[in-house]
## 1
Amino acid sequence: MMRVLVVDDQPINCTLLKVMLEQQGYNILLAGNGVEALALLEKEAIDIVLLDVLMPIMDGYETAARIKKLSSDVYLPIIFITALEEKGSFERCLAVGGDDFINKPFDKAILSAKIKAHSRTRQLSLKAHEQNKLLEYHYNQTEREHEIVEHIFNNALENQYAFTENIDFHLSPASMFNGDMCLVAQSPIGSLYCMLGDFTGHGLAAAVGALPASRVFYTMVGKGMAVSDIANEVNTVLAKLLPGHMFCAANIIELSSSGKSISAWLGGLPDAYLINQQGDVLKTLESQHMALGILETDEFERELIHFEVDPSMRLVLSTDGIIETTNEYDDYFGEQRFIEVLASKAQISSNEVIKHVTNFAHGTKQQDDLSLVLFNCLAVPAPKKEIESYSPLPFNFSLSLNSTQIKQTDPVLEIVDVITRVGGLKAHRSNIFLLLSEAYNNALDHGVLGLDSDIKNQEDGFMEYYQQREVALEKLTGAMIIVDMRYCPETLCVYFTICDSGNGFSADNNNGHSLTREHGRGLSLLEEIAEQVSYNASGNQIEMCYRLTSLQA
Amino acid sequence: MSLSKSASADGTTLTIQIKGKFDFNLVQSFRQAYAGINDTTVRVVVDLRETDYMDSSALGMLLNMKKTLGTSVNAIHISNCQPQLKKILQISRFDKKFDID
């Protein structure tokens, strides 16, 4: 029920209005002056105020102004009770916030119509106010959620801004969240990867795919995987996670650490360009594949393109937002303009290109995310590796293999795995493998099996050699190879001794070991990698010293 | 230890990728990888990004490939070598016969 507050110092007016309005079903409150009225408004819910102009203590003008101030959120109609002769004061009534007038003596029909009209407006205003509050609540909630998500995105797309020498990129999302993403990372061996992706649509819905895609990208680059493997894995993850109508057009490229060659997987983005410093297009690279997240893993196409580059070259990657930008005449920016802009200035920056695009749009609302990557084909400094500290303990390993074990196993890698458990040796595993592999295989092939390396030099000898080896290995009995390794923390050296049960060699018997011959690539490698290599007099034992500090050199 | 090969989208590059250990155990499969090479292939890339270990038998296999392919390809690249493997290739003067990256 609507509640009407009647404010008048004349009891007769109050009574009259009260009776008339109560008959029509309104709830009436009475006040004798402005101060009483304001006090009532403080504690009671009032929908309409009928206000006399001339009153003691606080008159209608001041009261109206204060009431309007109190109820700024919702429309609270104030109807002034006026006498016809007060016509001159109408203007002032409106100025202080009055909404209408009712003349004395009161006409019941007019009074009723006016109250009805204003209570309708009041109700509309109340409803709008409720909805505003709800809207504000949801708005705040969404804001808060966006803040959280934005935080997650910023952390997920971690080192976008590293490698500024090589990569100059610009992303300008059409809404708060970017449906485009630019990921950059370096592999342990130093090659630099960049992935530019464009998810279907834009805004948050488009951006969510960036989280799983970026995780896969960073993890696989961290392991130095090939671009085709990365594309394949991102595709698998997105195909599994995204709804059917969503996918990600993407270019994934890898620049070798020397800066000399590029491998690229191109799926669904506009043409990429290889340009020179002046911006002339040297090569146009068309998309080869469907976007990521569409094909099943078994039908996915992994084919890459490879090309040689030099430091004067730049690779230009972009999403369709650029060429599909329109101006006020609905013309597309298009590939031709894009190519012209690239050549408009030597070593143009991504921001300068985007400026051309936005100038072209000339205030037309941005429809899609605009993304551009200018990738300079410069050699990339290798990442610094953390050096594991060397163990202070003097480890010693030794194993002797009999014929059965020699036949059934290929023990070198397993031995390397064990010895590189010693703190600090992991970084040397390739060299340790090489030393052990050369020494062990020499002991086996020439010492124990008595094979002749010269076979390798003959036509097709390489295969022949390994076939003979297999046959000889099959027949092997009564043989033994002993491998002994000693890690010395004081000298930071690893000492290897490998000895075999073979006949060894002597000056006049030259058909056994290859170690004495000029043949062995293996031998010269050993001597380069190890600090010292020596053989015993009978030629069936080799000793090597490998200095761990040699890596820094 | 494993070996995989793939052709580039335009068919001009054959990539042979070796995972883990590159030694005589791969002698068969490595030879097979380039045996049936296409006429369109002008470049072979031996991608060692996931190769942790190699020894002189791998060097022999690479030289064999070079000998077999001869002038039928323009270049053989050995790419993405880890530092210690790169050093092995340099010591063996492979940079004279292969493009090492």
## 2
Amino acid sequence: MNPFLKRIGLVLAATTCSPALAVDFVHEVAPLLKKHCAECHMGNKHKGGFSMNTREELMKENDDGFVLEPGNSAKSLMMHLITSDDEDERMPPKGDGLNEKEVALVAAWINAGAPWEPGFTFKQSSYEPPLRLQRPVLPAAQAGRSHPIDRILDAHLSKTKVTRPAAIDEAAFVRRVHLDITGLLPSVEILQAYLADKDPQKRGKLVQTLLQDKEAYATHWMAFWNDLLRNDYAGTGYIDGGRTQISQWLYRSLYDNKPYNQFASELIAPTKDSAGFANGIKWRGAVSAGQTVPIQYAQSVGQTFLGINLKCASCHDSFTDQWKLTDSYGLAAAFSGEKIEIARCDKPTGKIAEPYWLYPQLGKIDASKPPQERLKQVAALTTMPENGRFSRTIVNRLWHRLMGRGIVHPVDAMGTEPWNAALLDHLATYLVDHKYDLKQVIAHICESQAYQSKAQSLETDDESKWTYAGPRAKRMTAEEFVDALWQILGTAPGKSDFVPAISTGAAPALSRATWIWINDGAQSPAGETVAFRKTFTLAAPVSQAMAVITCDNEFSLSINGKAVAKSDDWMSPRLVDLKPHLKNGANEILLIGKNGGSAPNGAALYFQARLKQGKEAVMMNSDATWQATAAPNGNVPANATWQNAVAVPAQNNWDSIADKIQQAQAQMAGGGGLRVRASLMKSDLLMRSLGRPNREQIVTSRPNDLTTLEAMDLNNGAILAAQLEKGAARLLETQGADPRTMVDSLYWQALSRAPSAEEKQIALEVLGARPNADTVQDFLWTLFMLPEFQLIR
Amino acid sequence: MNNRREFLKALSASTTAAMMARAPRLGAEVIHQPAAKADSCILLWMAGGMAAPETFDPKRYQPFEKGVPISKILSTFPSIRTAVDNISICKGLENIASVMDRATLIRSAVQEDLGSILHSRHQYHWHTGYVPPQTVAAPHIGAWMAKVLGPKNPVMPAFINIGQRLEGVGESEELKAFTTAGFFGSEFGPMNLPYPDQAAAAVRPPKGMTPERFQSRRALLTKLLAKSPHREYMSDHQQESMLRSLDNAHRLLSAKEREAFDITLEPKEVYDRYNTGRFGQGCLLARRLVENGARFVEVTTEYVPFFQWDTHKDGHAVVEKMHKEIDMPIAQLIRDLEERGLLDRTLVIVASEFSRDAMMEGGPGSTAKDQATVKGDTLESTSHYGLHRHFTQGSSVLMFGGGVKKGHLHGATADERPLVAIKDPVTITDLHATIFTAMGISPKTVYDVEQRPFYATLDGKGKAVDSIFA
């Protein structure tokens, strides 16, 4: 006996209560009716003109009159038929018929008024998805739109008589494709360079460039996969070892763009690093039979990879699809090292589950092999090309992420009919043909005219009224929203909760820069300010340019005359992205260092940049070749005389941050950019408000709508308010207080466009001639609240 | 504001966020929602396992004496009389005793033994009606009320949760797992106010922002929207719903009801009567919120492992402190609600995830491991003196108002160990059915999630304890 039930039994015994047993249609009556009556009276069978698919049909008068009289079993024909000794009369005519207990249950059910599950029918939906992929014949291209996706969708639109959606403009495309592939807003420099580019192939090239940014891609898609694989950096179960993370494995797999069949195999037949998915969450204490670790395995494999919901069938044969209790237990048994007894609705049946594969036509699991071998078989059966369900499920998820709605929708109901089967199978065969390369499928979708069309404007969220008329706008995910804030405001935290252990190839141990000052720095007067400069020439644009900077006690950095960053926390070296500020030709880096204290003390500045051009990386270190001059009050006098900076001998207090410098260097070597991303952080109140889920269950789509309580958080939540405060201060420092430049720049950054004259007018009225912290914060808040900002369309 | 109905409509249309949660199932079996006996509900949560023999179900009193066998301890507090002749409760709860004539006391609540006693897991069970883990995220009982009944006053969040920190405390991830609307979507989730004295900040413009600036910031958004070049999206459902939610939020942040969140506006002598600490302040806040039309409010003594009711040692001393923390505010809450004519339509429940015992872990036959942190067979020091084990088979639930009988006793536990419920046991499922019924929600109320039915009480089987209703 299941120990859990044993205990319940004890509770009942101890409390001397005998619960009035209500008749349970779903869990007791329906299976019994199905077992004995289905062959002749359910689905498309209605022998003797009698169907039991629905309660209405069951209650209908037929050749023999009424079969049931609810509330009165004694007067019901059904009771007579199931208890009759007359062979010609008895139902069911074959087999042993109903046993005593079953007869009693039917009687109790009739006496209770024959309750029925609302809306329930024994008739299965007539749609049965084919298992194998069918390579569609592509319709002829219309208007020269030859991309296979467009050929299919243009034909679809012709058939449904829906106007073809208009193309989006270049800037909207750049914003959409950046957010969709890397989860980041496009930088203004990239956007403007793109707009100026005359290359007719530039859309396709941008898609490729973005996909090649391994780090940005992996980091962004971590959020999607963490949801789908219920992995997180904190959560139920981790605390007591009932659950393990797969974060490192997952990041690495995305970074390397591991072929999806291999990716899935490593989760289904896991190694230690990827086992967290298969092992699910083990709770302390007893759990229901439908939530044991092996059953969780069956449910997770079914849902994640095949879009099959085995949750019903973990408890009893499903009423809504074909999956049976033995299917769920079959997969669970493949996983389990021990024999598992099948329980129906938490009641043990005495039957031992046999390892069994959901699609026997594809092959079977060899029960004689040890679990590890069996899981390899499960992996092979799941990922084999003949299993079209596997490839369809993932391409449908990708389509949903990129286009806003699944081809099969909702995305987990893969047994239901797609709105365009040819499109689904085209994408699935494309995945198989391209060796399960997910990036190629993403590129394929993004390169279609369909993806590059205007978003549908929907009057209602009623899915039953929906027809395809272009992509659907997507709400920014919590992570995208937070990253966008960090990008614009420069307020990303110094380090992420999850740090990917990616050594980017063989990154050589970086040489250290030299600490410098205008003299040996040992006895710098309190408050002394010194300017340092370095000029250099760039022959070609850089693909990355990051710097690690710190100064005991403060520094401010300008590049080519523009303020870029400052810090007064010398113990935390700053990682600064130089790239947006560099230009081809001559560049000048100017650092103002300031000493602190109240009496003469040690002072020094540290700067180290890594510039990447093509495959080459060049280091630029502070050293004695830099120039220095006294800069009273932080200003470089017009007639300043520059002299060579002096290397400052290492001192204990600067050595104390050596490891922090090293950490920052490692980040810099990893490619820089925005390393600390929301998808690598533990969830917080703001992210929860924006729809980041507790990853205790598998989540395959985030909520599309903003709720009132969430909107409260956006109105007065402490996290957002703090971001705005810090961000506004930083903008005022680094961008100066010219309101016109600020409005233009923020519109470009946040919305990827210039403000209209009217918008600019309104913004300028609010910011005033001299923007201050309050007006800048309010303007920022307003920008972030615009649906245009929060929606990707 | 326009009329209430219109506003409600707007509020509920603002999200059909419950992506997967469809409308109530319609079908052959019509679910009759019972007539509501109460419009608001306050759950006073004794987090950590309130020992019934130390509170509302006193047994033979054993004073502290060195060398006494622990097996002799049933209660460490003597009993006192209450306003109801046949009901005695523990010394230290004199104020609650004085309002017992407004209460129904259930002494036979039982919980399932989940094999290993884990507070957060039993609290999950109590708050959702479902034993974790579940294949779908189960909604909190407050989320059910928000979903089925909606807000009572449209500007007031329907589900407000007071006193529990969800960050930086032990088992906080586990607490978050049930402090949620689950598959209903966050529209129906809790507004969390961990510190009652800072609740006002949750409905005020951000710190440092004047109301004028708050309004003008909002006006700026309106102006920029009006000039948006993206006219083609004006009627877009998603855009509209986003703006409507922002409107609704702004409305609460500007509404007069937000004063209800500010307990410092209460007259000092009233404030002082409640102010036994965060729990007492929470009771005061709950009263103010219910006066202003809150639907469901939970106030907790707060669960922090090994603190408050979670006594694994020094039980007597800690419970003495807990008595002081809850006694006055609970009684005052009842009197205040009554005085304002609100008690009849407000259901107040005092409950906990399970009880405690000095000897027995779980209950008879349980395999749960003994979790007392001081062991020994006899009383050697005061740290041994108290009920340090978790007990699931006989606990007390106190209910006031909302159509329950006044001065009524339901069920009983044995007088000698095991102190199990021996009369009219009430399971969590049936207790929930009782609460839902009082609020006008059928225990069979059901929503579809992932093509499966999900019921207000386990499998729709909860039966209200009708005998406690007047």
## 3
Amino acid sequence: MSSSLALLAEIRQSSERRPFEVLKLAEPLLNKGTISQAGDDVWLVYEQVFLAAIDEGQIELAKAILITLQKRFSGSQRVKRLYGLVNEAAGHPGESKKLYDEIIEKDETNVLASKRIVAMLKAQGRYAQAIKELVSYLDVYANDFEGWLELAHLYLGQHMYAQAAFCIEEVILLQPANHYYHLCYAEINYTMGRLDIALKEYLRVVELSTDNVRGFYGVKLTADRILDLVKNRPKKDQLHFSLDNVPQQGTLERLSQLATERLVNAYSEANAACRTVNEQWLKE
Amino acid sequence: MSSGLVESSTTTTDQAMFLDPAIRDWVLFPITVIMVLVGVFRHQLTILMTGEPPKADIKDLRQAKALMRGQVLAQNKSYIPASAFVERKKYLCDAYENGTYLKNKASKEQNAANLMTDPKNMEVMMDGMKKQMMGIVPQTLIMGWIQFFFSGFILIKLPFPLGVRFKQMLQSGIMTPNMDVKWVSSLSWYFINLFGLRGVFSLILGGENSADGTRDMAAMSNMGAMGQQPGQPQDYNKLFLGMKDNLSIIYHEWDLDSIEQRVLVKYGKQPRLFKSARK
Amino acid sequence: MAVSNDSGLKTIAKGVALLAFVCMLHAGYSAREFLLYSKSIGRQDLTLPVEIVFECLAALAVMIAGVVLGVGELKPISYEAEMKRYSIDGMFSRPSFQIYNHRGRFLRPIQPSASVAEK
């Protein structure tokens, strides 16, 4: 039984969104009451199951858990927020909005409620407002990387790449050694045609994370693109791209070659179909 | 000759002294129990008196986070491209200069003295004072009480021998140069309790307790310095201007300038030619 | 098989370390006794006899070896190994901004298990 608790803890820590698995693991725990084996973490488990339940649309289960939590932590802002979440999931956004406004009125520094307001605007499809709200939130909490990440994705949804890149830069400033964010930054830059920065950031990804496949695909793509531009295209075409800071042709060729090699190596264990697709792509 | 010396020395180490069991029952245990009880009492009193933490003001937060942003930029500058860095530097420097993030923009010229009049800051300071008083008063009382009633007492005999250096620690308040260090005086027992009960408190009251008196002692000795204590009002305008100077002289070098070489070296495509350019 | 062998080795190593620790205590005690005795017979030369020094140093060496061999599995400390534990989904999930009025409730049949959670 404790193994499912351990699995739940793992999911919780990875902060991945896997509601179905969470519910499946948690149901026997709830039925048999063995959830209390979690010790001090039991309330975290309850919260986790609650979030999974509203994700899966099991409002009744969520409400039951909420009552348990309410009994233990009456007056807690964190539990209050969960009421708002239930209402959101059950399709009463008006109630939730009222609740969040109430929380903020009482304590204007309540981060969770401020974030929910942004999320609700997003849920209603009012992206422009969501962005505006989030920007004013980040004006205060400039070191909240989750907020910057969200803002970047909101901007990406609006095809505002330069702004998104700015947000990812902030995220990188806050967590410089996380290669996932470098990867995201590289991809945004590639999309914007800033090939020089994209190449370097892709290289950063494969430096931080050995044999990162997505990183090497990026390296290959960018290096070949730059080589093509520099060698075969007229100057006029190059103007659309930012290529100020690209390495020499020899280095580019070697990087491209290295990427090919690592990618072939990465797929050497895979099945034949995968391998041929990969090889075909590399040949192009 | 030599055998006589040995004999005399053994007699001095085995000082034939016996403690009245009444001392154990009426002095040793009471002191210990009272110290524990006072610790628990202090803990409860602190909980009672602290009350709710002062509500944070969103403008205060904004101020502090803005400064933090500058620090982060200065620290991790080399991970973003030069253009991105310059853009941020310019923005932050201007913002610091103009006091965009200041809580009271009007008070930009005012100095730190005026911060004392802010009622919230007053409250914070009072809170700190209260806590310190609560630490100092009972400890002083108990120490006085022990000194008054039990000075000159020997309380226990340690079951193991110790060097002469421990004499200061274990026999304070007793002026006998020849007594073996095994014997512990009452005042010393008080100090041993004072510093040694921390573990007991964290066992019975939980890790975060305020029963321990030693922290207040440390606080007391810091009082003279008075420097920038947490919770003390700070002059953010000055801090902002300092950060602005700090940022404006920073030399930016992108960490990825030589990344091609580093990656080639990492994957064994190129020998390590120069000592790697990273710091 | 290999595991039990390994844990057996570890227990032995821990035992050896403990033994070495006792030896070290013994060396310390001997040194003290020696000094007391030397002082009481008025000896001028107070350097420790070589056995005690040797015992102390040997015990130290054995203890270090025992402790190093006896510890549990060493974990990789590189940042890369640490990052391997996180997936890209986890790194880009923003829990506070998740929205809940989505299709989730229509995707799977509702299993009412609410009554059980109440107790």
## 4
Amino acid sequence: MTTAGYINLIIAKYNYWIYIVLMCIGLWAMIAKRNLIKKIIGMNILQTAIILFYVSIATKKGATLPILGHHDAGHFVDYATVINPLPHVLMLTAIVVSVATLGVALALAMKIYNRYDTLEEDEIHARVRES
Amino acid sequence: MKRLGLLAVILFGALLVYGTTDFPDWGDPSSPAATHLSPYYIQHSLHDTAVPNIVTAVLADYRGYDTMFETAVIFTAGLACLFLLRVFITPKETEASGLYRHRATGITLRIGQGGRLPLGTREFERIDSQWVPYDLIIRTACSLVLPFIQLFALYVVAHGHHSPGGGFQGGVIFGAALILFAISHNLRTTLKAMPEKRTNILTGTGVLIYVGTGVLCLLLGGQFLDYAALAGLLGVDPVMARSHGILIVEIGVAIAVMAVMVSLYYNLASAGHMDEGL
Amino acid sequence: MSAHYPIFLVVAPLMAALVIAIIARERPGLCPPLAAIALTASLWSAAGMLCRVLAEGPFSYHIGNWPPPMGIAYEVDHLNALVLVAMAAVALINLITTRQAVASDFTGREGYFYALYLLFCAGTFGILVTGDAFNLYVLLEITSISGYALVGLGHRDAALASLNYVFMGTIGASLYLLGVGYLYLITGTLNMADIFSILPRLFGSKVVVAAFVIAMTGLFMKMALFPLHGWLPNAYSEAASPVRSLIAPLTTKTMIYVMVRLGLYVFPPDFTFNHLLFAKVVVWVAAAGIVCASVLALSQTSLRRMLAYVLIAEVGYMVGGFWLGNRMAITGAILHIVNDAAMTLCVFLAVGSFTHQLRDDRFATLKGCFRRMPWTMVVLATAGLSMIGVPPTCGFFSKWYLIGGALTADHWGLVAALIFSSLVNAVLFFRVFEIAYYEPFADPHQEHRPALSYAEAPATMLAPMLFTAAGLVGLGLLTGRIVTHIIDAAIPAAIL
């Protein structure tokens, strides 16, 4: 492929490249960070990256919101002029799921803090080994 | 361990890049996702459900079952936090121990475990253990804004058929209003306005409205969540019955989401003690 | 009524959970019976669905009366009807058996416990019966979140174990969601049958390959396949015993079912087994996993940790068997989903009985248990023999099919791993039996031997446990019928 071909590839899919970067950041935070809150933040970045991915699928160039006027009733709507509503529906669900996971993760982090007085993983493991 | 993690992340990124090179272009209106299933929704939802907002129609009707479980997920999260954090101790102890301020003189008393207030509770008010300055501007400003936020929340719920909005968004805004009240005043005042018991009941009730609507459709001879079966009960034609059915479940969702947001805040802010926090 | 069984199966526990959550504080006494009624209703529906599938063949239920690609449909066929009956029975038996343990482990919050228990069950049943790839994700999350909460309130380090489970579980579920997103992007649909019919045209696409690898990796993470098993030993050993005997049989087995469903009915089997090198790699990974997990099991000092590693080895059996891709091995894998659920329930109920009666399950405290808790030991021995694979218990038959399948495929690595793991299991369980058979040595400084009181569990716990143990033998004796009538029809005819 020529240089121009690569540049075209990058420009034509640039939303998708960004979600990959975000996802890797989230995953890296979950694997490498030793602080539990940072891991939770990484988890949230990971989930949000997926939301970006889905919403990117929905886009159509030059299309408008998926809300019709009542005057559209009975008329034929050209689907190319309205963005795809389905990924948005799915992501409403995914947002709720990520909020729910976040809530439970924070509750657990709070319990951990009450028990070990720290949220640094290394210190927690040291405490676990002591007892 | 860290090297292994880096390797895993790089491999994962490479896999994603590999898949992405074959993606249709971003915003391509002729991609499979835009041409297989979604045209049906765009062209038929208004005719099928009389709801102009296609996202609402798909969310609460075509894929209403997903949304029911989505509400159940948020309910589970509220329940999980309650289960994990809530400290169940007898109210006698909580009432007595803590810090109290004499209203008239401003003297602060500290009551230990099992202690009692010397004079009746009228003369004293419970205060937080961390000193928070009384801020007239913040309290007044928040109290002024609150009714408008709540009204807007109701609008977002009710107008989900015609504009961006619906049960989740409205419920979150309403919950945020209550949390704002808790932040600007304190947790105990909020608990008086919105007791914990009420949030617990509302959480369950909101989801029950959703599931109950589905079961009602079933009892009236339709499939589960087939709102058209409600036509006879609501006195409208089946298409409008779908529109009304969507509104009913959205209200259930809004109640559940609002109550869970508040319940999560209560439990996380007070570490399950429900006496003071933030 | 019978037409609505698929929805009744899921909605009965869901509604009961909502009602229980509302009345949890005021009427805690009502919660367990209500939960039992809901799960009985689910079991009844599952059994009714199995009968209907056997009589009429697969059927589907359109929720909201929208035909499948537009709306969400529940698809019932031989595969999920069989697994559903097993899972519903496991959930109900565990509920009945652990009632006393719940009352002592979760004092003051039994109501919330039962609500979360039912939500977990509703999610699991939903995963098993749904025909929509995204709906499966939502149900997966409801199961996971209630699971995290239940695990989080267990032994001392439970919160830490549970948070680790949250991290691994969320990565797994997110990868599955991403895989579904890739499939949606390339096919434009979320319905499994629809994806199945579109995919053969797209075999060359890199997106399909990426979707396949990502979704399967996510599932491997959720089912704790060997190198990705990090969350399981701690989560299972730190959880309270009623939770452990619920989550251990249901979670990993459900995920294996999802893997089978994706591999056979979402991705065409030809793609799954022949198109990529992936299948061959996974079989070797599973074989390695079986060996490593068995070795790790040998070094544990408490019964529940040992069993956690045995469980990871069992996951390797099913994954290895499935990815061999021949009829006999897949039969073994599906049969093992049911058998392993029953064995795991049985063995963890016995462990729960020890922890409830003796407050501990380290090997040292098990001394003299054949005298102290004879019936519980009978249950443990039956489950142990089944895990080793002694006929006529059910464990023997699924292992027979798995080894037969591996021999058909000439995969000597997996054969060796399976036999090695059986030998290790024999060592593990006979060591436990030996400890429990001999009583502790008398202390030379004391006149008397330490008094070993009779400490058998109450009859209400014992009866369902003995029933489960008898069920292991019963399942073993029924193997022939299950395979010819149900599993044969569950595997596509194209697989030889």
